[in-house]
Amino acid sequence: MRDCLQKLWRQQPRASEQLKALILKYFDELDDVTIAERLDTPWPTCSAEAAAPWKKLEVCLRRSLEMTEAAGPT
Fold it and tell me: What is the pLDDT along the chain (74 residues), one digit of tens a residue?
């Protein structure tokens, strides 16, 4: 997971606010209002920003799992 987040951060520098919102919401378990305060963003935007990178993260995680499965048991 961490590798995928770092990869997305490097590849999508304009999406950094979205990734910050995602991390604060799902890993730090903060509510949208608190995230909005931390990111200095209107609170309705925070939910959308946290949801936006999920698809890209999902693709990265699937690829990682496929590579792990293809490598076989360790």
Answer: 888 888 888 887 777 888 888 888 888 999 989 999 999 988 777 677 767 777 788 888 898 888 777 777 65
Q: At what angle do helices 32-39 and 43-51 cross, to 10 degrees?
A: 100
Angstrom CA distances, 49 to 25, 44, 65, 67, stand at 10, 9, 25, 29
d(C-alpha 60, C-alpha 19), whole Å: 14
Of 27, 62, 63, 42, which is closest to residue 19 (Cα–Cα)? Answer: 27
Q: Which residue has the tokens 């997971």?
A: 1
pTM: predicted TM-score of the whole model, two decimal places: 0.64
